[in-house]
Design goal:
By secondary structure, this protein is mostly helical. It is built from seven helices and no strands.
Length: 180
């Protein structure tokens, strides 16, 4: 005997699973920055029915996980950059029929802007690098291992999220499934 979720409940369940995914993957040991956070930001931007719900899911997951992991001085920059990834998904992927080229491009832009913004902030606001062009470049070079993990995490988790969402749409959210 199966169960039948309404479209609204299915979408809410999906976004609740995203919050849980952020929590679990940030709390568990993982390679540097290899989490679904940016993939979820892009997806929530593209698929959340209301921008407040999608952005709220993202920030709630981050806030709850940071309560456990601890707050840090660059937290506002991190959240702002993730919000930018959310808006990238909203602007470039919302309402579109799935396009692997467009999704891959946005999947590359999200982690790249995060890398550029957060490493610039580390250089500008921190004390670990001299306030010179050489210091800025050092900050970016030292961030490359995190960027690599971020890219891999975004693409791997992004593909998994899209596959699960596609299955959910076909089996639960399609008009035929809702009527069944």
């Amino acid at each position: 005997m199966g169960f039948n979720l309404s479209e609204k409940n299915s979408r809410l369940l999906c976004f609740a699973v995203m919050v849980l995914s952020i929590l679990l993957t940030r709390w568990m040991p993982h390679p540097w920055n290899m989490t679904p956070v940016t993939a979820i930001a892009l997806f929530a931007g593209a698929r959340a029915p209301k921008w407040g719900l999608g952005l709220g899911v993202l920030l709630l997951g981050m806030l709850i996980s940071d309560l456990y992991l601890g707050f840090y001085s660059l937290l506002p920059v991190t959240y702002l950059s993730l919000g930018l990834s959310f808006y990238l998904g909203r602007f470039f992927l919302r309402g579109e029929k799935f396009s692997i080229v467009k999704s891959a491009a946005v999947g590359l832009i999200g982690p790249t802007q995060f890398f550029l913004v957060t490493n610039f902030a580390v250089w500008a606001m921190g004390t670990g690098y001299p306030k010179t062009m050489s210091g800025l470049m050092s900050s970016y070079v030292m961030g490359l291992p995190f960027y690599q993990g971020h890219l891999i995490g975004t693409f791997v988790y992004g593909a998994a999220i899209m596959a699960l969402w596609s299955a959910l749409e076909q089996r639960v959210l399609s008009p035929a499934a809702v009527k069944a």
